[in-house]
Amino acid sequence: MKKNVNFKIDPKREAKRLVFGLISAVIMAVNIKTFVQAGGLYPGGFNGVTRLIQTVFDQFLGIPLPFAPVSLLLNAVPAIIGFKAIGKKFTLNTSLIIVVTSVLTDIVPAIPITQDILLISIFGGLINGAAISLALIGGTSTGGTDFIAVYFAEKKNKDVWNYILMGNGIVLLLAGVLFGWDKALYSIIFQFTSTQTIHLLYQAYNKVTLFIVTDNPKAVYDAIYEVTNHSATEFSATGMYSNEGRKMIYSVVSSTEAKVLMRKVMLADPHAFVNVIKTDILMGRFYQKENY
Q1: Contact by Cβ (8 Å): 87, 292
Q2: What is this structure's pTM?
Q3: Which phi-psi region, left, alpha or beta, contains residue 40 (left: φ > 0; alpha: ψ -120 to 50)?
Q4: Other beta carbons less than 10 A from residue 46's beta carbon
Q5: Per-residue pLDDT of the chain (292 residues; tens, 9 = 90+)
Q6: I need a labelling partner for 207 at 20 to 30 A (CA). Which of 56, 84, 177, 282 fits?
C-alpha cells in the first residue's frame, strides 16, 4: 500500500508534540542526575545500557565516558528502523528528544535529594514512567525501546511493556555480576515502578468492548463513529422484564476513546444502558488512530 506523502501539518498537534517531548526530556535528564546516578541504578531501555557501559569503562578502564555519545550511538539503529516502520515525524521528534535528554544529562548538575536507596528506586521509577508517558501522550517517545513499544501498540495493538521489562533483566544480570547485586535488585524496583506508571498513564493500547442497549441506535452509532472512526454491530434484543424490543450496539474502542464516547452516547440517548468490558485479546481488523 502506498503512503500519501502529502502531509497535512496540524500546528496545534505539532506544538503539543514538541512541548510534551521537551518537558519529558528535561524531566528524564534531571531524573537521571538526581535519582538514577545518585542511587547507582540502571534504568530500563537504552538509558540503562548507557549507564552500564559508562560504569564498565569507569570501573575497569578508568575512562569516564560522557552520557550523550553512548546514548546517541545506541539509539541510532532503532531510530532508523522507526523512521521506516513507524513514521517520519514521530521518529524525527523522538530523535530530538533523545538528543536533548542526552545533552542535558551531561550538563545538568547532580543534586542528590536523598540517600535512601529504596526511596530513590520508587520515586525515580515514578518520575521515569511519568516522563515516558508524557512523551507518548504528546505523540512522540523517549527513544530506545520506546520505538519497539510504540510500534507494537500502534501497529499491532499489543502491549509489550512487560516484555521490555523482562528484556531489561539482561542488563540487570550483567550489572549484578559485575558490580554487585544490591544495586541491580533495587533497579528492578525502579523499572517495575516505571512500567506500572506507564500502564496507568498511557492507555492508548488498552481496548474495551461496549455493549449499548438503546432505543436510538442511529444516534448512538453516529457518536461512536464521530469519536473513534470505528464501525459497530447492531443486534435486536428484547427486555425480559418489559418484553419490549430494543437495539443493542456492539463496538470495540480504545480505553481513552471510551471516556469521551460515554458522554457522547448519553447525550445521544439519555436512557441508554452501557456496559464496558475490558478486552484482553483482539484479533482481526481494527482501526487504530495514529498518534505520530
Answers
A1: yes
A2: 0.75
A3: left
A4: 24
A5: 444 444 456 788 788 888 999 999 999 999 999 999 888 999 878 899 999 999 999 999 999 999 999 999 999 888 887 787 777 888 888 899 999 999 999 998 888 888 899 999 999 999 999 999 998 888 888 888 877 777 776 666 677 767 777 778 888 999 999 988 998 999 999 988 998 998 888 877 778 899 999 999 999 999 988 888 888 999 998 888 888 889 999 999 888 788 888 899 999 999 999 999 988 777 766 666 655 5
A6: 84
Q: Are 22 and 144 in the same domain?
A: yes
> Domain total for the chain?
2
* Cα radius of gyration rounded to whole Å, the chain: 23
- Please give the single-letter amino acid code of residue 115: Q
What CATH code is carried by the domain that includes residue 233?
3.30.70.120
Q: Which domain holds residue 241?
A: 207-279
In angstroms, the CA 170 to CA 37 distance is 19
